[in-house]
Amino acid sequence: MIILAIETSCDESAVAVTKDGRTILAEEIYSQADKHALYGGVVPEIASRNHAAVIGNLADLVMKKSGLSKSDIDAIAVTYTPGLIGALLVGVNFAKGLALALGVPLIPVHHIRGHVAANYIAEPELEPPFLCLIASGGSSLIADVRGYTDICIIGRTRDDAAGECFDKTARALGLGYPGGPALDLLAQTGDDSLFNLPRPVIDGAPYDMSFSGLKTAVVNIVHNAEQRGEEIDKSSLAASLTAAVSDIVVPRVIKAATEFGRDKIAIAGGVAANSRIRADFVKAAESQGKTLIIPPLSLCGDNAAMIGCQGYYEYIAGARAGMDLNAYATTDVNVGYSADRR
User: Fold this and answer.
1) What is the pLDDT along the chain (342 residues), one digit of tens a residue?
2) I need a surface site. Which of 170, 181, 185, 209 has the fewest CB within 10 A?
3) At a CB cut-off of 8 Å and minimum separation 6, what does 102 contact?
4) Whole-angstrom Cα distance, residue 22 to residue 11?
5) What DSSP string describes 150-197?
6) Distance CA 2, CA 69 (A)
7) How far apart are CA 141 and CA 261, in angstroms?
């Protein structure tokens, strides 16, 4: 089954053509990072306008790269939630127009489910059930993936996401936007034990996480040093922060996998690109005899290929949308698409 997929949930405009939920035939991603770097973060209105300006050309380019004709497309998949509402609406409306023009089904895809599906591209033999950490700038979730469309969230952040913690720390350290890659590089030359940072535990919820206090602790260290006119060891602060985030997420995922009887563990989302977190997961999985699947860096960030691959399984499960499909800033990943939602 050939699916043309659209992803515009934040500041990447992405289009891909995928086959049977596992193979990328062609893809393009247009990053707006340089435009938002001027403001230190994503400006929703700017993101929406840029999506509208480039999405049509991206779709044409991807079709040309795939070597397919429009008649070869069996369905259109699109991210409809969660994300920036204006950005989502650009993709949803473009996808509706394509589906109507081509006379093919329109498949609504939850962005978080898409991140999980990135692992099916990375490891074509992977099948549920497995445990998955989804960690990005907007989400930090631990999911028991029981089936391709049966995903149960068993742990989540109570406040900020891990990616937001990285981004806000990078901004405080003057590393610019996006902060994650720069922070990762800086941390590699630092002493991760120099700063004593919190590792919160949620009483009665062993798989839930909290990053707000960690973010605040780091920002306070930076601001206090600035007020006293002192130099701060930025690389060691970056390393200490990365170690703290890893200490929060890795043991929880390993413990959950053991409790739920899952021998396979996957990680997904932008935070999964962090080198320290990837390395710590490798060590932890090996020590516990778990199989670990980690997507390549190109599939950790937002992309349309993962939406097309998850769209395949949503299609098999019967998910279809009409021309009344709307976008939603938030939706529970446990709940599949319902045409009755208004």
Assistant:
1) 999 999 999 999 999 999 999 999 999 999 888 888 888 788 999 999 999 999 999 999 999 999 999 999 999 999 999 999 999 999 999 999 999 999 999 999 999 999 999 999 999 999 999 999 999 878 899 999 999 999 999 999 999 999 988 988 998 999 987 888 999 999 999 999 999 999 999 999 999 999 999 999 999 999 999 999 999 999 999 999 999 999 999 999 999 999 999 999 999 998 999 999 999 999 999 999 999 999 999 999 999 999 999 999 999 999 999 999 999 998 877 656 654 443
2) 185
3) 70, 73, 76
4) 25
5) -EEEEEEBSSS-HHHHHHHHHHHTT--SSHHHHHHHHHTTS-TTSS--
6) 11
7) 18
| Distance in angstroms (rounded) separating the CA atoms of residues 224 and 73 | 57
C-alpha gyration radius of the chain: 20
- Please state, as a whole number, how many other Cβ atoms lie within 10 Å of the Cβ of residue 236: 18
Q: Which backbone phi and psi does 232 adopt, to 5 degrees?
A: -120, 145
Beta carbons of 105 and 320 less than 8 angstroms apart: yes
Rounded to whole angstroms, the Cα distance separating 214 from 160 reads 10
From residue 72, give the alpha-carbon distance in Å to each of 5, 103, 326: 14, 12, 26
Measure the CA–CA gap between 300 and 10, rounded to whole angstroms. 14
